[in-house]
Write a structure and sequence with these properties.
The chain is of the alpha+beta class. It has 16 helices and 27 strands. About 10% of the residues have low confidence.
């Protein structure tokens, strides 16, 4: 809504109220404000209301649009005290006063003036004199100072006022920087009209080049108007605005940092990161929730996913393989949320897990033998415990001449073998049709002559199809699931099989599990951020109605060190799995010493 005060030089002022988000000004009928003077162009300028800000834009007029005596060269945010000059007219714009009772104007036509109009050339000279004169400096009305503003220093009043309006509990300087960044981004949209650029025709490199040039022009104008504080790094500001316009905003810096493993955006003003196993609040923020939405759309669009009010959550991946989950309002009440599990550029090897004390050399040797003996394995663990990383490492033990088919919701497995088919599920289209689920893909795997089937994660009914595959000649298959202990993993498998919709007795399900699953590997994330394999257990069979297990290795925690690190040791129980006895009888050499505790 606009409350515009319009006055001709030397004339009376008129108050105009427009209930819209854009008001056009020009000489021709059809503009919202018609100013029938020769020094006003047919379509002279417009004022746009965006995110609570009033932005004046010149529409390539002959004589230009002036603010406080200075000709504008691009979109400019104006305050209530700023004077906008269009021809012989002076305009002020603000939100309507609370006690204003006037009616809304559908349009205004100022064609009643019969005075002789000055020539455009004379007007240009007059404006040049005004431009050379010192610009009139007017401060915005003082507002009650918030306690958090004691460190605002010499920030421009416009940034301080914006911070007061938003009222977020964010460091004032970070908030001010984000407000400035958003201001520049708003001007960029008007200047370049990013939404209408043919990105496919331009190409990424040309698009980034043109956008960077536009931002440089805007920064130069703002610098000349004194709108950017001296302490702001211009190069950093340019990079941040460019990343928000075309990249992933503040997330770009986190993605480039190899020490950061997880990025969690709770809302625009709150980004947490996990660095070296520890979660902490970062100092970077988005300029607005709209900017977060823009980042989400740039992530999901290239892989054919969508996110909107009808489908407000999505799983996706970045170009480097990092896994992304996004959820937006109305489900996310505080604003759009993004969670990114970063994909490591360097593939971890089993030697890395030993170095990080996630497993011992004896456990690594045993897991290699499990894979080479074609035993079915389930990797169990909590969220963020490192299940997928461990699955990637264990998959390196698979022989190169075996055909591997992987099935995932969002592809993040990174196998080293050449004979590998990678499948990814597909969400429904706009009509709610065309979805291909994990379960559909697991069923299709059976027709692809796989030696190994690897399901990135079992969450529901696909567990039944996975068990059937394991029981019908596809030995050596692997999958992961969420559970806190090996016993819980068996219970979760039961539940997921029931989710398939088959009316099976519990005993039959347990018999399927006991015959299909040979090993359960439990992965745990500890309070100090370390990740360890805490159990390697063999599913040994059934006793009456209970699936029996036997621990082969486990981690025994023995407290904490002085610096808060988990202290403990790995224990071999001495139990030898049944398949080792089979290997010995077949004359295959095995190292029985790994089962003896040192």
């Amino acid at each position: 809504m606009f409350f515009i005060t319009l006055a001709e030089k030397g004339g009376d002022a008129r108050d105009l109220l427009f209930e819209k988000e854009e008001v056009t000004i020009g000489r021709l009928a059809g503009n919202d404000i018609v100013l029938n003077k020769g020094n006003v162009s047919k379509y002279h300028s417009k004022i746009v209301l965006k995110d609570g800000k009033y932005i004046v834009v010149d529409l390539k007029s002959t004589n230009g649009t002036f603010v406080n005596g200075k000709k504008i060269s691009g979109p400019l945010v104006v305050r209530p005290t700023d004077k906008i000059y269009v021809g012989d007219y002076i305009i002020n714009v603000d939100a309507p006063p609370e006690d204003y009772e006037g009616e809304s104007n559908e349009g205004f036509d100022d064609s009643q003036q019969e005075e002789e109009e000055p020539a455009e050339e004379e007007y240009e000279e007059e404006q040049q004199e005004e431009e050379e004169a010192p610009a009139e400096e007017e401060e915005a009305p003082a507002e009650e100072e918030a306690p958090a503003e004691k460190n605002l220093g010499n920030m421009p009043a416009s940034l301080q006022n914006a911070m007061r309006r938003r009222g977020k509990h964010v460091d004032p300087r970070i908030e001010a920087y984000a407000t400035l960044q958003k201001d520049i981004h708003d001007r960029l949209i008007e200047y370049l009209d990013l939404r209408r650029l043919d990105m496919d025709r331009l190409g990424d490199e040309e698009l980034w080049r043109r956008t960077e040039k536009a931002i440089q022009d805007i920064l130069a104008q703002m610098d000349g108007d004194g709108e950017i504080p001296e302490e702001i790094d211009r190069e950093m500001l340019l990079t941040d605005v460019l990343n928000e316009a075309l990249g992933l905003g503040p997330l770009e810096a986190f993605l480039a940092d190899d020490d950061i493993s997880e990025i969690m955006v709770n809302h625009a003003n709150q980004i947490y990161i996990e660095k070296k196993g520890k979660i902490r609040l970062s100092e970077k923020i988005f300029s607005s929730n709209s900017a977060v939405l823009g980042v989400i759309e740039r992530i999901v669009a290239p892989i054919g996913r969508r996110i909107d009010e009808s489908s407000p959550l999505v799983d996706a991946r970045l170009k480097d393989g990092s896994r992304v989950n996004a959820i937006i309002p109305p489900l996310a009440l505080k604003g759009p949320c993004i969670t990114i599990r970063k994909f490591k550029r360097d593939k971890l090897q089993v030697s890395d897990l030993i170095k990080y004390k996630s497993i011992t050399p004896q456990m690594a040797e045993f897991l290699e033998m499990v894979v080479k003996a074609h035993k079915n394995m389930v990797i169990s663990g909590g969220t963020g415990s490192g299940k997928t990383t461990l699955l990637n490492v264990i998959s390196t033990f698979i022989q190169d001449d075996e055909r591997i088919v992987t099935v995932e919701d969002a592809a993040e497995l990174n196998l080293t073998q050449d004979h590998w088919v990678q499948l990814e599920s597909r969400p429904p289209n706009l009509e709610g049709k065309g979805a291909i689920t994990i379960r559909d893909l697991v069923k299709n795997c059976l027709r692809m002559r796989p030696d190994r089937i690897i399901v990135g994660e079992c969450r529901a009914g696909e567990a039944l199809d996975m068990l059937q595959a394991m029981n019908t000649g596809h030995d050596g298959s692997l999958t992961t699931l969420h559970a806190n202990t090996p016993r819980d993993a068996l219970a979760r498998l039961e539940t997921m099989v029931l989710m398939a919709g088959m009316d099976l007795p519990v005993k039959a399900i347990r018999e399927q599990i006991a015959s299909a699953v040979h090993m359960i590997v439990q992965q745990t994330r500890f309070s100090d951020g370390s990740r360890r394999v805490t159990y390697i257990s063999e599913v040994s069979g059934m006793e009456v109605d209970v699936v029996t297990m036997q621990d082969i290795f486990y981690f025994k925690q023995e407290g904490f060190t002085d610096d808060g690190k988990v202290r403990g040791r790995y224990v071999a129980t001495g139990f030898v799995p049944r398949f080792y006895d089979d290997l010995q009888r077949r004359g295959i050499p095995v190292n029985m010493g790994i089962f003896r505790e040192e």
